[in-house]
Each structure stands twice: as structure tokens, then as C-alpha cells.
Amino acid sequence: MKSWRTAATLILTTPSSNTRAICGRKKIVHGCFSTNYAVLMLQRSSKNNFFPNAYVFPGGGLDHADVTSKWLELFDNIDGGFVKHLDRLRLDPSMRTTSPMMLCDAASSPDNLPPDISYRICAIRETFEETGLLLARTKVPSDEYMLGKKTLYARTFKFEDSDMAKHWRKKVTKDAKNFLKLCHHFKCVPDIWCLHEWSNWLTPICKGMKPTKRYDTIFYKAAIQSLPEYLVQDNEEISGLERKNPESFLEDYFNEECQVGNPQIYELLRLVNMSDHEDLIT
Asked: Tell me: the pLDDT tens digits for 30-87?
């Protein structure tokens, strides 16, 4: 049996009024589950070998470019205390220890980043490739070294125009090493502080999925105030983007109007238990 492939996924939410439409179809999700935020989901292309046409959260496989220690130089250029406080950065703020989700050998080489950092870079890079949204910041406040601190909203990098975003997105999609070059060019770093560990999934066998591809995936959650106008699917792996309340996606799924993977269904069900966006992100 092939070993599990490592991956990272991002559950991205934004404030939103509840706009669930239930007219003309069976109501499945009880009305008490009403959220004031939306979640971003992507529809996989029909040409995709892995779970075609299904709605998923942004994310993908860990690349060698995500774990290279060359990232440390970039982070240290932005803030000279980054490497100095690297051990502090990786500590769980409540337990003063590395997160249990990160007790793996994915980055055991001394030439690689700690997995706490590399998996976050992976999730941010994959989100940029699939949607054009770049979570990045140009400054690291000294009181935010530690991952897991309550950073409410992520920093989104604003490109000069949509053509510039498209240019870099194409380069990064072609070669993940270009993500580091992008950050050097714009003197920014992936906003790893805004990604909070949410869950860890081993890919279950689902209808429409080839069992030869199985992933050990860490799920992060992050929030932004609003989505940039230039967000668009890549039309290769992804055929559509949709932003709706979690209960709306569940209604669509249970009414057999869309295909959603088991991990995504479970996580959407978790989300609807938190009706207020502030409760979710604090």
C-alpha cells in the first residue's frame, strides 16, 4: 500500500448575512442552525482524477518548495527576530508544546522548515493557486510570534491590478518554487499567524474517488473581512468558486444538488454549530 500523501486545506470564512434559500425544496437543516458568515468552497473540475465535480475547501499536497529552509531567510528579512524566536513560534500557547497534529517527520531534515510552518505555507500557496487570494503580510508585530494567538482576520495582499495577480498566479501554479520568489519580489511573507489548526483527516474512501490517492491532511481555519474582486477559479483543477453559509451548502448536498466529500460534510456540520462569526474566529 502506498504511503499517505501529506496535504493542507484551508476553511476560509467571511462575515455574511444569512441568505439560505429553501423555497421549492425539502428543508433538511433545522432553522435553528443559522450562521452570519459564509465559507468559500471550490468545485473540482470534471477532468480531475481525484473526486471530480465535488465541492471542497481550497488546499492541496505539500510541495518540497513549502518546506525549504530558504523561507527562514525571507521571514528574517521582514523581521529580524523570527529565527531567534522560532521555538517560541511553534509552541502551543496553552500547553507550551508543539501541537499534536505536528508530531510527524514531514520536515525532519535540518534543511527543512518545522511542519507547523511548512503546512501553513502549503495551505496559503494552494489557496493562491486555486483562487488568486494571497494571505500575506509585510510586517510581523513582535507580540505575534507565537502561532495560535487569536489573530481575528487574515491580512490579504493587494496586487496593483488583476493582471499582476494573474501573472504571479500562473507562475506559482507552474512551479511552487515561484511562491518564494513572489514573496521576495513584494517583500511580504505568508500570513501563517492567521491560520488556526482545526482538524486532521485521513482521506476516507468516497464514491467517485480513486482509492490510489489517499491524503493525510491538516485542516486550518482562517477569516477575512471580504473577498477580493479578482477571485476566480483556475479553470484547470477548479471549475467554480462559491461563497455561501455553511447550512446552504449542506442543504444543497442533502437535496442531492451537489457532491461534497465526507470530510467537508463533517466540517460543515461542525461549523453550523457556531452561528456567530465572532465565536468561530475568537
From this structure: 566 789 999 999 998 777 666 778 899 999 999 999 999 999 999 988 887 787 777 7
CA distance 198 to 260: 19
> What pLDDT shows up at residue 229?
77
Query: What is the C-alpha to C-alpha distance for residues 274 and 34, in angstroms, rounded to an integer?
Result: 9
Query: Is residue 211's pLDDT more than 60?
Result: no
Closest by alpha carbon to 181, among 128, 234, 143?
128
CA distance 133 to 140: 20
Q: How far apart are CA 74 and CA 121, in angstroms?
A: 13
Q: What does the chain come to in residues?
A: 282
> Which residue, 2, 31, 54, 26, is CA-closest to 262?
54
Burial track 82-103 (b if 16+ CB lie within 10 A, e otherwise): beeebeebbbbeeeeeebebbe
**Phi-psi sector, 252: left (phi>0), alpha (psi -120 to 50), beta:** alpha
What 3-state DSSP class applies to 155?
coil
| For residues 157-176, average pLDDT | 93
Cell 496586487 identifies what position?
A: 159
The pTM of the full predicted model, rounded to 2 decimals, is 0.87
